[in-house]
Structure formats: structure tokens, C-alpha cells
Amino acid sequence: ESGLTINRAFKVFQSSEGKEVKAINDVSLAIRQGEFFILLGPSGCGKTTLLRSIAGLESLDAGEIYLGDQRIDQLPPYDRPVNTVFQSYALFPHLTVAQNVAFGLEMEKKPKAEIAKTVQEMLDLVHLGEFGGRKPHQLSGGQQQRVALARSLAKRPKVLLLDESLSALDFKLRRQMQVELKRIQRETGITFVFVTHDQEEALSMGDHIAVFSKGRPEQVGTPEEIYNEPANRFVADFIGDINFVDAVKSADGEITVEGVPFRVKQDISDLPMDAEVSAAIRPERITLTAPRESALTGTVETLMFMGADVRCEVRLTDGTKLLVRLSPPYDTAVLHEGATVSVEVEAAHMRVVER
Ligand code: ADP
Ligand code: MG
Fold it and tell me: What reaction does this catalyse (predicted)?
């Protein structure tokens, strides 16, 4: 077992104005061996600094990093069984693809035959088996990216660190590379720690995701947990579209929105009675029906046909605007601008967060 453990890590920088920036502010993480782990968060939240600290390009002010039971945060970068793929994948332009992949192995003075075998394996792995003799400029951007990946994997690191590695690629290529990266991670069984600010990328690729804000993880969980059970308002807001509606705790396990009670699945026993909270509701968890008694009531303000679904804005009686995403078959009786509707939400899909 050689998972990556980060224990109470801190890193402070001095900004150019002389102010202290807590880039890493008490981070503890347990990353399992062989998993695809994502560090997700807005720009400036400390993702790159954490990755550089794991690689040894940055030294922590406090805290420890372990690979299995080996402490690695005191080791020089080249002694860590870790490799990094940066966003700019800087291949040597005068070397062939095969020579680029071989470069690190030749530095280690590995036998020629072993190098050739590893290079071919790595190029096959990234589906560039026939491209070893080409120069980087004869490849597309996505192919160059895969060469960079093959080069990083050739030394068989225990952990591969990837910092926004796909963000330079256009949308379609990026989608393809996400699938490729996932496959390569599975086939090699190497632990990937992948940094992104793109929540869709994180949800689609991660085994576990740590959602960062201001130098610290707000929540660590599977994509389903992060999406369906956000731990707080920041996580709910950062991941996907969501509505926040004022609510009050009205009984144990119950909140009330505009006088309508909902029994929530979430444990809210530590909240005091009458606590003013927000109910976080995903747009696709709402349905609109003909008006009925004792339901949330609203008016359809706008309708947008998006192809696969319809997005509507609904104004509740108290003025709150809700984003609603309806899937076919549509109830055309209520789907027109100006319609008075009953807003139905499954209480199991409401999350109680701070207001
Ligand atoms: P992210 O990768 O999530 O965008 P970074 O780790 O690059 O975030 O940066 C985290 C914070 O630390 C930011 O406020 C950034 O300006 C600051 N920072 C990063 N590196 C340095 C540095 N070498 N000197 C001063 N401040 C830095
Ligand atoms: Mg960064």
C-alpha cells in the first residue's frame, strides 16, 4: 500500500505588496494508491502550490507528506517517486518522439535494449506506437500532449501529478483526452493527482475530488457525493448549477420554505430550532405541475429550449428566482411564459446549507 498522505500542510508566500498569502492553509488529504484524484477549485486557491510541494519544487512551512510509510517531503525532487506533467508540455523540438520519451531513461543510464522496450510500451499505451520516428512539430497538439504523458510515465513514477494538463486543448480534443487519460490511469494503475478548475472535468474523471477554497479543502468525496451532497454553500455553488432558497428549520429533520414543510434526508440535528438556512436545489430536481394546494407556487418567467432539455426561470411568491431544467416529455399545459405553477421538489434532493 503506497497511498499519498498529506498531513497538516502549510505554505505562506509574501505577496509583492509584502502581505502574507496563505497558499496552503492546513491541508490534510489521504489519496489512495492507484486512484484518479482531483484537486478542484477556483484560480488562486493553492492547487499548483500543493502539487509543487508534492513534487518537491516548493518546500512546506509545516506538515508532512508520505508515500505509503515513507516520508518524502524532505527529499530532493529527483529522489521522489513522483513525476509531473505541466500544462506547457515542452517537448524537445530537435529530438524524435521516441528520443523525447527515452530522454529521462537515458539520463539514468538504463541499458539500451530496456530503454527501447519501455519507449515502445509507453508509445503504445498512449496510442502513438507508429509515431516514434516523427518530430514533435509533425504531430497535432493532442498527440504532443500524449508524448509528454508517455515521457512522464516512462520512469514509472508511483504518483503522476498533472497541473491543468488539458486546459490548452480545444473543447473536442479535451473531451477525447479526458477519456484517454482515464484509460491510461486505469491501465497503468499509477496514482494520478490531477489539478483542474473545471468542475465538469473533475466530475467526469475523478475517483475522488477535493474541492479547494483559499488554500484548504472544503470537501473530499466521490463525484456523486460532491454533486448530490455538497457539504456547504461554497461547494454547492462551485459545482454545477444550483438554486438557494431561504428556509427555516421547523422540526427535527424538517425545513420550511415559504410556509411549505419538507422532510430532508440530511441530518440537521445539530442546527437549532428556527435556524435560518438555505435550501440548495439542483435545477434538474424540480418539476413544474398545475397549481395545487399547499405546494410552492411560482410564475414561469422565461423559457429556453436547449435541445436536450428546457430551462425555465420561475419566480416564487416571495420573489426568489429559480432556475429549472425540465426533461421531455414536457407538460405543455404549464410550459408557457406567465403560467402559474406548482413547484415540486423531492425533499431528498434538497441540501441544507448556510444562508
Ligand atoms: P492555483 O493553482 O489554485 O491557481 P496557486 O497555488 O498558484 O493557486 O496560488 C495560490 C496563492 O499563492 C495565490 O494567491 C498566488 O498568488 C500565491 N502564490 C503562488 N506562488 C507564489 C509565489 N511564488 N510568490 C508569491 N505568491 C505566490
Ligand atoms: Mg494553478
Answer: ATP + H2O + polyamine-[polyamine-binding protein]Side 1 = ADP + phosphate + polyamineSide 2 + [polyamine-binding protein]Side 1
- 140 CA distance to ligand 2 centroid (A)? 24
Three-class SS state of 22: strand
- Ligand 1 centroid, distance to 23 Cα (angstroms): 6
Closest ligand 1 atom to Cα of 52:
6
Judge if ipTM > 0.85: yes
Ligand 1 atom nearest the C-alpha of 46 is 6
Number of Cβ within a 10 Å radius of residue 150: 26
Q: Could you check whether the bond before residue 230 is cis, i.e. omega within 30 degrees of 0?
A: no
What is the number of domains present in the chain?
A: 2
Q: For the segment 222-252, what is each residue's pLDDT rounded down to a tens digit?
A: 999 999 999 999 999 999 999 999 999 999 9
How much of the chain is in helix, strand and coil states, percent to nearest 5?
Answer: 25, 35, 40
Our answer on whether the CB atom of 53 is closer than 6 Å to any ligand 1 atom is no
* C-alpha cell of residue 318: 416571495
Burial 299-319 (b: 16+ CB within 10 A, else e): ebeebeeeeebbebbbebeee
Out of 233, 254, 280, a domain closes at 233
Residues 174 and 227 in one domain: yes
Among all ligands shown, which has an atom nearest to the Cα of 42? 1
Measured in whole angstroms, the distance separating CA 145 from the mean position of its chain's CA atoms is 20
Would the pLDDT of 177 be above 90? no
Closest ligand 1 atom, residue 14 Cα: 25
Task: Quote the domain boundaries for residue 20.
Answer: 4-233
Give dist(CA 44, CA 209) in Å, integer.
17
Q: Cα–Cα distance between 349 and 43 in angstroms, integer?
A: 29
Tell me if 10 sits within 8 A of 25, measured CB to CB: yes
